Structure formats: structure tokens, C-alpha cells
Amino acid sequence: MPIVAAKRGALPIKILHIADLHIGDRRYGRFDPVRSVNTRLDDQRLCLNSLADTALKERVRAVILAGDIYHSRTPTPAEEDVFAEFIARLSGANIEIFAITGNHERPSNPGRASPLTHIDTLRIPNFHLINEPSVATVIIDGEPFAVAAIPWPLRREIVAAGFAQEGETPSPVAWDAYIASLVRRLAAEVPPDAIAILTAHLWTVDVVTDSPFDPRGEPICRAETLARSPFSYIALGHIHKHRLSWPSPPVVYSGSIDRTDFSEARIAKGAVVVEIDRQTASWRFVETPARRFVDIEMNLEGFPQPAESAAIMARNYDLEGAILRITATQAKGDTPLDGRRLRPKLPEVFFLRIVRKIESGEREPFSARAFTPMGALEEYISRDKTLAPFKDRLMKLARSLSEEVRGK
Ligand SMILES: [Mn+2]
């Protein structure tokens, strides 16, 4: 009998890594009373349609959804329909879809259904929901393809695994040790000979320490903790800026599919096309038609007609379809810059937000909208009696994290 090699499909396999879809995020949108939806849902649909186009054009065989598919645990029917339309296109093209739950949709109560549960129950062809740390394996062109998955890790899980005590805030060191144990367990569950990737929804940093990462004790690990055999690629979600966290095997955040706040104003948005075989992966970023954010600071001190002046200054920017924030410095006693006067002068703007800074040393009443994320955090810590004594240390940690998230 001649020995005949088993027939194998062509390697590498092409996959599309998507994360942080945040369907139903209504920030910076308007309510459309006719359809009873927030207009940002159209942005989310547009980005998902372009990603389905990419999946079909690139002939990817699998799509990884690395968590935060929905912005909330209770999406509206219109929001569910946007996701259903996306899944139907992929499933109809015989693309395997692997979805894990992120912090925005994973219920902390183990008995409670997530907004993805019913899609799993419907047994849509090729759709795989992974709601607990586990490995899902399918056959693609005769090759076993394994997805090891860590949905947003929960406090009760790290306690149950013995890496933290009930009632204590787990330190980053404890989280790193727990996640390392999960990765080892999942690596051992991958069928031998499979082409394997790991997907997870969590924070990563370069170094973990015993001091608090943030007062809520959220799941975090070193990127290196995830970068291990047999995984050729690690598809992450949670951090909204696309970034490479570890070079080999690549540990990658695809980033959110659309812009979600002003810190992302100058950042490209999209997903990652990955070509993968048993040992290696090559990847490239593909952009989505994300909504533009334009952030303008202006000094309007002493201007008698601030709305008129602001409109003239804003004309120096491309405002077509933009979510625009104007941070205006004014003197005490100046006519306040009024959004209702300015808005009609900028009809091409999608959404306008005005932040006034008063140049007098006096503070405006507390409003989270008037702050940068770091400023809001500092204000929050200052106003909390238990956190205030640790302000300098917490702010230092927050700044280094923020810089890292921005890839500095
Ligand atoms: Mn998240």
C-alpha cells in the first residue's frame, strides 16, 4: 500500500480580528424620533458593513469578535438588528464567527443571559459564543482551527480559583498569576496539530506591581503572559486604540471599530487581517469609515459676540460630518458662548459640544463633560475621602497607563 499524505487545505488561514464594536453607544449622537434610534447607530452599522465587505473581499475563513460587541447588557431591538445583519452576512458566506463577552455585556451573575445568548441558542451556522474560559475548535479546509478564549474575567472567578480573597480588591500581580494559569490550562486543551489563537478581553501592561492598577481592581496582565505556545496570534479587546502589545507571537488590540471619544480624534479605527499557520502570523490593520472627531481650543476672552467669532475660527477646520468639541476660554463677565447661537452657523457639523473655561481662577460647577479623562479622574479622586490621600500615586499610575494606551 502506498503511503498517501492526508489531504490538507492551503495554509495560511486568513482571519479577521475585530473588537469593541460597542453597538448602542449613544455618546455624541442625536435621537431620531422617526426610527426611535440614536443616530450613532448608523455609524456603527456603516463600520460593520465595511468590515463585512472586508471579510468577503479578503475571503477570510474566520472572524474573531474580542468582546464589547454591545455597549450595554440590554441592547434595544434596533441595536440587536444591526448585529444580526452583520452576523447574517458572515454566516451566509460560510465564515466561522467566534464571539467572546466583554465587560460591557458579560453579566456578573452567572445565571443571567447576555445579549449574545439568544444568538447562540438560535444555532446560527458558524456562530460560536464563548462565555467562559474555554477552547472552541472547528475544521477549516481540513485543518483543525482552535480558538482559546478568555471573556472579561470576573472577580468571582479569580476568587474561586484561589488567586484572591473574597472581599479584597485583586492586585495586578494576582490578576496576572490567575490569567497565566488560565492561559496554561487553555494551551493544554488545544488539540495537538491545531492552528491555534488566543482571544481575550482585558487590560495588558508591560509590568505588573502590587500597587492598585485602579481602585476597581479590573483584570489585567502582562502582554507577555498571553504570548505563549501553541498560540500563533493573540486577539485582544478592551483598549480602544489599536496597538501591538507584544511582538512574537503578536499580541494585538485591534481597537474599537469607530471613534468613541475625543482621545481618539487623531487615531485610525478598524480591524486586523491576520494570516496564520501553526507557528507564525502576519497581520495588517484595515481601516473603517469611522466618524471624525474635531477638537478645537479657542481663546474668546473679551470677544463681544463669541458665537459669531467661534463660527469664524471653526471655519479653519474640515467640519463636514464631524463631532466637534470647542473648548472656549472666556473671561468672567464675558457673554457666554452659547451653543444654541453657534449651532445654526455650523450646519455641516454632526454634533457640537461646547466646554467653557473661565479665566478667573473660579471653577465652573462640577460637570464630567468639562474635563479631560485625566482631569476628571483627578477631580474624582480629590473629592473622595478614601482615595484623596493616595492621589499622587494614583495619578502617576493613571498617567503611565494613559501614555501606554496611547502608545508613547
Ligand atoms: Mn471593554
Shape field: globular
CATH class of the largest domain: Alpha Beta
Q: Detail the poorly predicted runs.
A: 1-7
Order of helices and strands: EEEHEHEHEEEHHEEEHEEEEEEHEHEHH
Main β sheet profile: 6 strands, mixed
Please, what is the average pLDDT? 91
Discrete helix count: 10
The CATH topology of the largest domain is given as Purple Acid Phosphatase, chain A, domain 2
Strand order of the largest sheet: 6-5-4-1-15-16
Considering the protein shown, what is the CATH homologous superfamily of the largest domain?
A: Metallo-dependent phosphatases
Based on secondary structure, the structural category is alpha/beta
The strand count comes to: 19
Helix content: 25-40%
Number of domains: 2
Report the end-to-end length measured between terminal Cα atoms. 62 Å
Short description:
Helix content is 26%, strand content 25%. With 408 residues, it is of the alpha/beta class.
Characterise the protein shown here.
This protein has 408 residues and is of the alpha/beta class. The chain folds into 2 domains: 13-287, Metallo-dependent phosphatases (Purple Acid Phosphatase, chain A, domain 2); 293-405, no CATH class. The chain has 10 helices and 19 strands. The strands form 5 sheets. Strands 6-5-4-1-15-16 form a 6-stranded mixed beta sheet. A hairpin with a 4-residue loop joins strand 15 (270-276) and strand 16 (281-287). Helix 1 (40-57) runs parallel beside helix 2 (77-92) and helix 9 (373-383) packs antiparallel against helix 10. The protein starts with 12 loop residues before the first strand and ends with a helix. The model is unreliable at 1-7 (pLDDT under 50). Manganese (II) ion (MN) binds at residues 68, 102-104, 201, 238.
